[in-house]
Amino acid sequence: MIDAPPAGIPPVGPPPAGTPSGAVPETGTASPAGLDTRTLSRALFLRLATLAQDSPERAYVRDTLIELNLPLVRYAAARFRSRNEPMEDIVQVGTIGLIKAIDRFDCERGVEFPTFAMPTVVGEIKRFFRDTSWSVRVPRRLQELRLALTKTSDELAQKLDRSPTVPELAKALGVSEDDVVDGLAVGNAYTASSLDSPAPEDDGGEGSLADRLGYEDTALEGVEYRESLKPLLAKLPPRERRIIMLRFFANMTQSQIGEEVGISQMHVSRLLTRTLAQLREGLIAD
Question: Which of 7, 43, 261, 268 is deepest in the core (most CB within 10 A)?
Answer without folding.
Answer: 268
